[in-house]
Amino acid sequence: MPDQRQPVRARAAWVLLVLGLVAPLALTTLPAEAHAGLVSSDPADGSSLTEAPDEVTVSFNENVARPAFLALTAPDGTAVDLGEPRIVDATVTADVPDLPLRGSYALSYRVVSADGHPVEGTVTFELLTGAEPAAGAAAPVSEESYLHRHRGHIAWGAGAAAVAVGLIAWPLVRRREDAR
């Protein structure tokens, strides 16, 4: 008579193996949910200014680390040379030279959150004084889509779904084999 404990031991070994592989992966994704978020900016997002700012500032809900990058795009699409970014706790500041053009400016930032996750985004402000930008000049459009920004999260989600389907299907396959 065949030993009935053998299939149970084999299943238990597979379950332990899968749990041993999946648990560390699941635990490593938890800290990524706590990365820094933008709290405020100066100039504020969407604001209209009658005078050009001397500096730009972005503030986050937690401390940020080096490196930090700030980039300012003028209404004609050219880059404005900012001073070296200064980081103090959760705030990043850079000096701004004279802004001669009237129109919409885009301040882009990329910082490293306390958990090591890069955080990036853009705020805009309107300068109501200055020279009119040259005709035909347009600010560059970002080519990065939602899928590009979140491809890592999507890949982890697809992997987790594949493991879940495998865990659900495994007992069904084993039952069919045992029934033969």
UniProtKB/TrEMBL annotation:
Name where it's found: Cell envelope
Q: State the Gene Ontology BP annotations.
A: copper ion transport; response to copper ion
Q: Where is the signal peptide?
A: none
What residue intervals traverse the membrane? 154-173
Kindly give the InterPro entries that the UniProt entry links to this protein. Answer: CopC/D (IPR032694), CopC_dom (IPR007348), Cu-Rt/internalin_Ig-like (IPR014755), Ig_E-set (IPR014756)
Q: Which residues form the CopC domain?
A: 35-126
According to UniProt, the name of this protein is: Copper resistance protein CopC
Which organism was this protein described from? Aeromicrobium marinum DSM 15272
